[in-house]
Design brief:
This protein is an alpha+beta fold and 236 residues long. It has helices at residues 2-7, 31-49, 58-63, 128-135, 161-165, 192-198, 206-210, 221-230; strands spanning 66-70, 83-93, 96-97, 101-107, 120-125, 138-140, 147-149, 168-174, 177-180, 187-190.
Length: 236
């Protein structure tokens, strides 16, 4: 148990302990599973942004460099004693938003509920440092990446804390409520297995995909187009 606690240090809140073999819970996904995850992520973005007064402010959508979404996944929500989600991310390139890659997030703070209620997460990188952090193999929020709860709604646009301090803004949605959430201590890591599966065994690196070197696959286009619809740069 000591070794497991070391391995998952920073991934779960104090008081939660992993028991048993946790890694076996992260089984590889099929192409159908991944297409479903993209569909779910598309719905999350559409639903979150449908009400501007309760959505991510324009000042943030215009500056966003990467968007990560962890859709509600009840079956994948738990490891033993901890919390776990599977997500998808796309990044802004000079030619539009990139093809997606897949990632994992683990921790105790993002609100998956015992009894089947899950939480959607949205991670927004707002500068180049945030972009580079998402290219790493593993990122500890609040440590490797300066993360903070993101502001919501038009009235939040005047706030300056996120401009000064944050690389990644983090949000949650549960039972219809969308709000910023503190994910400090949680860890984001590449899901290379799922990404390789999605690209039919092609081992193209995360960096190449997120920098726009790979054409957006057909089943990923709705997700990428939806992100592009809401997260667009200011027109001069």
């Amino acid at each position: 148990m000591t070794d497991m606690k070391k391995f998952f240090a920073g991934l779960v809140v104090v008081g939660l302990g992993f028991a048993g073999t946790c890694l076996t819970a992260a089984a590889a996904s099929s192409k159908t599973d991944l297409d479903g995850r993209l569909d779910a992520a598309t719905r999350v973005i559409n639903e979150v942004m449908a009400t501007p007064d309760k959505a991510i402010p324009n000042q943030i959508t215009e500056k966003a460099t990467c968007i990560g979404v962890v859709p509600s996944m009840k079956k994948a929500a738990f490891l033993v004693g901890g919390q776990y989600g599977q997500g998808v991310v796309t990044c802004r390139t000079p030619h539009g938003w990139s093809a997606p890659v897949f990632f994992r997030i683990a921790g105790g703070s993002f609100g998956f509920q015992i009894g089947g209620q899950a939480t959607d997460l949205v991670l927004v990188a707002v500068n180049d440092k945030g972009f580079q952090d998402l290219l790493k193999n593993k990122v500890k929020l609040g440590g490797d990446a300066a993360a903070s709860a993101g502001p919501v709604g038009r009235n939040a646009e005047a706030g300056t804390d996120w401009k000064l301090n944050a690389e990644l803004l983090t949000y949650s949605r549960s039972k219809g409520l969308f709000a910023g959430i503190d994910l400090t201590g949680d860890e984001v890591s590449q899901n290379t297995e799922d990404t390789t599966t999605f690209y039919n065994g092609n081992n193209t690196s995360y960096q190449e995909i997120l920098k726009g070197a790979v054409v957006v696959p057909e089943t990923a286009k709705p997700f990428v187009r939806t992100v592009a619809k809401y997260f667009h740069a200011t027109q001069d």
